[in-house]
Write a structure and sequence with these properties.
ten-stranded antiparallel sheet, five-stranded mixed sheet, UbiD C-terminal domain-like, 2 domains, 13 helices, 24% strand, alpha+beta, Pnp Oxidase, Chain A, 479 residues
Length: 479
């Protein structure tokens, strides 16, 4: 694993998957370049420097995880591991006994190289991009980390929520209702108080993993998870205004408070979201008043921005798939693989590979998968395939879908499923009624259990046969 974001960038440079772009404009051009590059699978990580209107060294890094090699690098694995290998790695880690590793406080911290307070506070000091043409403004926080403390219980939460710039010392933070950060801020507001907040706009990849995962249970800090993952405590330093623990090696930290909505709001959004649409439009959001800015010399903004071919958020499909796979494996026999399909934006479509062992087995596992905490939100399709289908290979999944299921008997619809304002297919009528639910489709794209032994054999070679051929004809398969 990397020591900080800069160390990760250096390691990516060493494997030849980093491209530096100089002279781009923060106003849509960075986003346009990113979109064009990400149209090609496996596109490089991109570091934007000498951004128009800003001094060299004030950088934006994005396109972090568009190759499994970079995800593997971030996790300290062999760089040539496959996507299945990444998921299996996470499965193994998540099966280990969890022992929380609390953070440690340090006085000397690179994040305090530069301290701006009072009239010095200026969010426009940093090249926050307007990422998409229809975005409502500039977003300094996409691959960011939002730090809050529960006012009653005292524990610290780390979450990834988008942050829009509205003025030199004014921003908004969009938090989906029900997330831990939302519950905490509402506790402060119920007491008539503003919620102390720190936003880091560039931090170690390991912290980005845990802040964006949504796996940490209520009452436990993601700092403890990060320490467990890296097998050493995260170094933090005390905030000047909030006293919140800030990663010592973060790039930029914005300290301030989220005021109650009745005090002040600003129009947040729209934003080109992870679904691939500007679905949530603009809405009033409580103001984030920034009272201090800490930053390293030559600071870096970390962007995790949706494109049409982009692993946007710290490889969440990898960890979520591993978690679902492990839980299904504990309860049901025959589960051979689980994958949240990134081409479908992950959450809306998951594929489960299963060795059917009894009538109803496939539907039972599909329903269990749909209800899993890491899958239920905005789930739209659950597809179950046979054990000979690789769920990580979309070509094989579509082959099964096209040849192994009769829609009349293999498709079920579940109504009133857990949805979101981010859903582009949510009708105007339902939006007005604030009814965010949608339907969920369950597809059994597998051989009908009661006559699967009579199903025509496929031409697909076994993994063993493929390995045998490659061994005999190595020159044919040289890369």
């Amino acid at each position: 694993m990397s020591d900080d974001l800069r160390d990760f960038i250096r390691k990516v440079e060493q494997i030849g998957e980093c491209r530096v772009v100089e002279g781009a404009d923060w106003n849509e051009e960075i986003g346009d370049i990113l979109q064009a590059a990400a149209a090609t699978p496996g596109s490089p990580m991109m570091v934007f420097d000498a951004i128009k209107g800003y001094p060299p060294g004030f950088r934006v890094v994005t396109n972090i995880f568009t190759s499994p090699r970079r995800y593997a690098l971030a996790m300290g694995l062999e760089k040539d591991v496959t996507t299945r290998g990444l998921v299996e790695h996470w499965r193994a880690r998540l099966k280990e006994e969890f022992r929380p590793v609390p953070p440690v406080y340090v006085d000397r911290a690179p994040i305090k190289d530069n301290v701006l307070v009072g009239d010095e506070v200026d969010l426009y000091k940093f090249p926050a991009p307007k990422w998409h043409s229809l975005d409502g403004g500039r977003y300094i926080g996409t691959g960011c980390m939002v730090i809050t403390r529960d006012p009653d219980e005292g524990w610290v939460n780390l979450g990834t929520y988008r942050v829009q710039v509205h003025g030199k010392a004014t921003a908004t933070i969009y938090i989906t209702p029900g997330h831990h950060g939302d519950i905490m801020r509402r506790k402060y507001w119920a007491k008539g108080l503003s919620c102390p907040v720190v936003v880091t706009c560039g931090q170690d990849i390991n912290l980005t993993f845990v802040a964006s995962s949504g796996d940490t249970p209520w009452g436990r800090s993601e700092y403890e998870d990060a320490g467990w993952l890296q097998k050493s405590p995260v170094e933090v330093t005390r905030g000047l205004i909030t006293d919140l623990p800030i990663p010592a090696h973060a790039e930029i930290a914005l300290e301030g408070e989220l005021v109650p909505p009745e005090v002040e709001t600003r129009e947040e959004g729209p934003f080109g979201e992870w679904t691939g649409y500007y679905a949530s439009a603009a809405r009033p959001e409580p103001v984030f008043r920034v009272k201090a800015i800490l930053h390293r010399n030559n600071p870096i903004i970390l962007g995790a921005v949706p494109t049409m071919n982009h692993r946007t958020s710290a490889g969440l499909s990898v960890r979520r798939s591993a978690e679902i796979w492990n839980d299904l494996d504990r309860k049901y026999p025959g589960v051979k693989g689980v994958w949240q399909v990134e081409e479908a934006r992950s959450l809306p479509l998951v594929v489960v590979s299963l060795n059917q062992m009894y009538g109803g087995h496939a539907k039972q596992v599909a329903l269990a998968c749909a209800a899993h905490p890491n899958q239920a939100y905005m789930a739209r399709w659950i597809i179950v395939v046979d054990e000979d289908i690789d769920p990580f290979n979309i070509t094989e999944v579509l082959w099964a879908l096209g040849t192994r299921c009769d829609p009349a008997s293999a498709v079920d619809i579940v109504h009133n499923w857990w949805g979101s304002v981010l859903d582009p297919a949510l009708s105007p009528e339902k939006r007005k009624q604030k009814d965010l639910t949608h339907s969920l489709g369950i597809i059994l794209a597998c051989k009908p259990y009661h006559w699967k032994a009579e199903f025509p054999p496929s031409i697909k070679l076994s993994e063993e046969k493929i390995a045998e051929v490659k061994k005999k004809w190595p020159s044919v398969f040289k890369t």
